[in-house]
Amino acid sequence: MKYYVLRITGGLLTIFVSSLLVFSLIRLIPGDPAAELMGLAFDPELARLMRIRLGLEGSFVQQYLAWITAVFHGDFGYSFINGAPVGQEIGDRLIRTIQLLIGGVFVGILISIPAGIVSAGNKGKWQDGGIMAFTTLMLSIPQFVLGIFLIYIFAVKLHLLPAGGWTDPNDDFVQWLKSMVLPWLCVGMAMSAFTSRVLRSSILDAKNMDYTRTARSWGLSEKEISRKHVYKNASAPTLTVIGLEIGYLLGGAFVIENVFAYPGIGQLTVKAISQRDYPMIQTSILIFATGFILVNLIVDLAYGFIDPRIRQR
Amino acid sequence: MKFLTWWRSLNTRIHVSVFMLLFLAVLSALAPFISPFPSDEMGTGQTLLGPTWKHPFGIDSMGRDQFSRVTEGIRLSAFIGFTVMSTSLLVGVPVGILSAYKGSLLDSLFSRILDLLFAFPNLLLALVFVTILGSGSWTALLALVIIYIPIASRFVRSAALAEKDRDYVSAAKVNGASTFRICAKHILPNIAPSLLVLGTNIFAFAILAEAALSYLGVGAKPPTPSLGKILTENQGFITTSSHLVFIPAITLSFLVLALNLLGDGLRDHLDPKKTSSRYKKSLMQLLLRKGTATANGGQK
User: Fold this and answer.
1) Would you call B59 helix, strand, or coil by DSSP?
2) ipTM of the complex
3) In this predicted model, what pLDDT tens digit does every residue of A168-194 receive, in sequence order?
4) Are the C-beta atoms of residues A37 and A54 closer than 8 Å to each other?
5) Which of B113, B221, B284, B300 to mutate to test the interface with A (most CBs of A within 10 A)?
6) How far, in Å, CA of A24 to CA of A35, rounded?
7) Between chains, do B278 and A205 touch, taking CB under 8 Å as contact?
8) 3-state DSSP call for residue B120?
């Protein structure tokens, strides 16, 4: 129990501190954002009003409290570029990014579990060599290069799938599925490289353990040993790594969404950064950081649940 | 003769990666002699030209010689990888060792700060720095240095933690060695092999990160021929002139592949005892790549 309480408090604390960091971000940028926004049409009175609207008036603590209260009320401010409410825009895109990540992680698991089991089961044979070579390759190819290759093969040469974009599943489900295949594959393949390596290593580690030898001396069949002892023990570290990978993919979302012109939150963030749309940047970074911390927290909790030894520390 | 024996003792992965890196080094060193065009000179020939003897990698949409751009890109990547690696090790090694050896207040303060930094995915962290500092090659480099210093320190710290209670450290202490002497002359040489592996990995990941930032348009500014930037510029021509996309894409992957192979090879070569479990080895690599580590430094 103490373990869970500690972890959850730690997670919440990190979210709080990162919100402080995100908040300081806009204030760390050299120069006056209001003046920068107005450019040549600078007017001191208007600038003051703009600073009020941006929440830049008053002491740091007052500003932070005002901002965090607004955030809790779902008010994330307004975009500098088109004046649209930030919360609305981000909400729509967040759902699409979640679609991308969940599907991608699912594909990644579908690839890595058989790959890990086959390569561990055939250690040193050609299957193992092939899978390991594939994972090394996948680790070296940047995600955007992988995405470009996929687009070239499936969209440019074979004309099977769209090269990018996103279709609303409510309008056309088949088209949606088609538009999701390449991004999912890109996320999944990138993720499978590490996951299958870790699964292979943990299966091999578990095979050398005393409990496996004991099980063998009891005369259990190899199949039963694998199922009841090896795979079960190899699953805990693999799960941690999958969780860590999801966190990593949150960072990778920026790249993948840009390759496939996918209208998710990562693409929005990059656009907002190049346009210096501070309310948008502030909110999307807060969302990414919160998501990342939550995923790590869930991993820690799940790990404690699977492996009771962790809770004792 | 001595060199040959030593060379034979290395494993295949190191051999292959050294040849791959040598190939890239020779290619980019000889580039000015193979193709005399500066990387930003426009109008060197017909735009979107395919590979010819005069322009081995073709010409891009703005009439620039692609071979000069790609080889310049290799040099830029190598420069960024090397700078990030050396800076993060120069700062990370003393900080990591001291914080492990001295422990107590310094260590816990240091760990808390790192936990906070690790609360962000590293690409996001780089984007945050770029937002504050403004985009460009130098800010991208600075952002990567800021990100990799804590990662390096964290790994040095966990490597040094494993050493600090060993007998040789106690013996040195009994002999009256100073903290500096113990850290520099006793702990450092013993963790040097892992530092080599760490350095290679940081080198590779820094190259990947810089390429990603440039690809997103917040890294190198035109006309700087960063490999990521070249890809964004040419991606629109993938249907008609795919070589403009594939050559930089393959070059970048080839470079990172060589470094990853070198890292893997070194790790196996330098850890002949095979003490650490396989799982921990692969986990360490993941944590490095992710730029994150759990509170206990991945030692779950």
Assistant:
1) strand
2) 0.82
3) 888 888 888 888 889 999 999 988 888
4) no
5) B300
6) 18
7) yes
8) coil
